[in-house]
Amino acid sequence: MTDRLITHLRHVDLAVPDFDKQREFYTTLWGLTPVAEENGLVFLAAEGSPEQYVVRLRKDAEKRLDLISYGAGSREDVDALAQRLGTAGVQLVSEPDVLQTAGGGYGFRFFDVDGRTIEVSADVATRQHRRIEEREAIPVRLSHVVINSPDPNRTQAFYEQHLDFALSDSLIHPYAGELMKFMRCNPQHHSMAIAKGPHVSLHHVSFEMRGLDEYMRGTGRLLRAGTRMVWGPGRHMAGDNTFSYFLDPHGNTIEYTTELEELDEDAWHPSVYDVSKPENQDQWGTANPFEELVAKESFNDVDRGLFVAPPV
Question: HSE of 223 in the Cβ direction (CA atoms, 13 Å)?
Answer without folding.
Answer: 14
